[in-house]
Give the backbone structure.
Amino acid sequence: MLTNAEHAKAEEAPNERDLTIRLDQFMKLVGLAKSGGEAKHFIQGGQVLVNGVVETHRSKKLRPGDRVTFGERTVIVELGRRK
């Protein structure tokens, strides 16, 4: 049986959708691409790695802890607040 505190935590837990971001959106957000079109070009051209593996799907869902590498730059996905 859950205590009231444990129950509140379970109700406040974010759902999976809140913990993911598309690869192309993430690239724009962190400045790896200037636009969605540019991100698409880089991704579909095989120039982007996710966790060390080439990723060619721009809609790939990233989660906290994933590593995105483009050129010499690697960025780790972290959980943040929505503005």
The CA atoms of residues 11 and 32 lie 35 Å apart. Residues 4-12 form the longest helix (9 residues). The chain is about 30% helix and 20% strand. The two ends are 36 Å apart (CA to CA).
